[in-house]
Design goal:
By secondary structure, the protein is an alpha+beta fold. It has a single domain, classed as Winged helix-like DNA-binding domain superfamily/Winged helix DNA-binding domain (Arc Repressor Mutant, subunit A). The chain has 5 helices and 5 strands. Helix 3 packs across helix 5 and helix 4 crosses helix 5.
């Protein structure tokens, strides 16, 4: 969302006020904010998901990989985020990429 010359994010108030989500760790909450920003940046008008590797997402959030995995697990279990795992397939060779990619969809 843009206001004047600045950009803003919309976040679900559930993250702050719903007792079910208040128990999330601060890392999980921050990861949710980062995922929302990435969704705005990388998903198109027709898609409501985007792709990110764990290494890239850890850098985006400023987390180590173990911290990222714990926070991501919390978000998945809470129902705020859905993930799908995949590899890219080279159209010429038909081979799967070595790099593991995760598709993220913000549900709330």
């Amino acid at each position: 969302m843009k206001r004047k010359d600045r950009f803003f994010l919309q976040l679900s108030r559930k993250l702050f006020h719903d007792p079910e989500f208040q128990k999330l760790s601060i890392n999980a909450k921050w990861l949710y904010v980062v995922l929302n920003e990435l969704e705005h940046r990388f998903s198109g008008n027709k898609e409501d998901f985007f792709f990110r590797s764990n290494n890239d997402l850890a850098k985006d959030a400023g987390f180590s990989l173990p911290t990222l995995k714990r926070a991501k697990k919390e978000l998945i279990e809470s129902g705020l985020v859905q993930v799908s795992f995949m590899h890219w397939v080279d159209s010429e060779t038909g081979k799967r990429s070595k790099k593991h990619i995760t598709a993220y969809q913000i549900l709330e």
